[in-house]
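Private note to self, pasted from the team thread so I don't lose it. Backbone tokens:
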């Protein structure tokens, strides 16, 4: 890999080091990571080849880490900024367009991915203290045992993981590199109805609005998407409890999804 020129201070995250650079007179981002999940995601981004995800300009692999040189976002805007500005419907449509590009069939086999059954173990392989989580675990097991349209998944398509790349459009970053039913990739977006929502009723209205746009645009069955959303929000609650964080938001979304199913 050639040595690009630094173009600003480096950014350290819990799993990676990011360095804005100039490569061939073009803004780019250099990312180095030793985290196994991030490394798996790097290989998936190479496989996507710039369609729906940031384009990888170069990829260097060693025993200890992956180094990616990728195109840099045109601006710091994310889909969250659209929602804050009152354009949530536009954000939902962009999510669907991005997901469609990521999910498109490709002739080359994908890299190693994590099955959703493995991803959901924190929810599905134990008994929980609340009836809501146990009910969600039952739904998750049913969906996993009867998965449809199994494809490579981003796994974390929430508002701040879809960035504005200017002329090349909105694209995703930081995939979890999963394998499973296509519906799952729309659930992280639905787990964020608190954005710009001062009240619970506002959050519920925004949840319903997004659900309608996504199911119509992506040609999804609303009940099945609600079941996947209930399962994913319960899994998120399990992760929060494990990390001694509040599961309130995830449980709120689980309640919204459950009430619409009922």
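Design output:
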């Amino acid at each position: 890999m050639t040595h690009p020129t630094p173009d600003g201070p480096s950014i350290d995250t819990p799993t990676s080091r990011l360095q804005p650079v100039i490569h061939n007179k073009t803004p780019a981002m250099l990312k180095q990571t030793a985290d196994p999940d991030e490394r798996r995601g790097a290989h998936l981004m190479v496989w996507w080849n710039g369609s729906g995800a940031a384009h990888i300009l170069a990829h260097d692999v060693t025993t200890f880490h992956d180094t990616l040189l990728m195109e840099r976002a045109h601006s710091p805007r994310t889909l969250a900024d659209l929602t804050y500005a009152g354009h949530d419907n536009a954000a939902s449509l962009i999510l669907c367009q991005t997901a469609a590009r990521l999910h498109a069939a490709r002739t080359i086999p994908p890299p190693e991915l994590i099955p959703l059954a493995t991803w959901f173990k924190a929810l599905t392989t134990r008994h929980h203290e609340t009836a809501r989580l146990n009910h969600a675990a039952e739904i998750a097991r049913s969906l996993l045992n009867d998965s449809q349209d199994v494809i490579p998944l981003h796994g974390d398509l929430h508002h701040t993981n879809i960035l504005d790349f200017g002329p090349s459009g909105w694209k995703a970053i930081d995939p979890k590199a999963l394998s499973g039913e296509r519906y799952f990739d729309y659930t992280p977006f639905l787990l964020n109805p608190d954005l710009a929502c001062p009240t619970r009723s506002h959050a519920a209205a925004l949840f319903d609005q997004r659900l309608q746009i996504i199911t119509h645009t992506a040609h999804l069955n609303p009940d099945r998407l609600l079941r996947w959303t209930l399962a994913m929000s319960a899994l998120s609650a399990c992760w929060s409890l494990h990390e001694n964080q509040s599961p309130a938001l995830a449980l709120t979304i689980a309640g919204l999804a459950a009430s619409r199913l009922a």
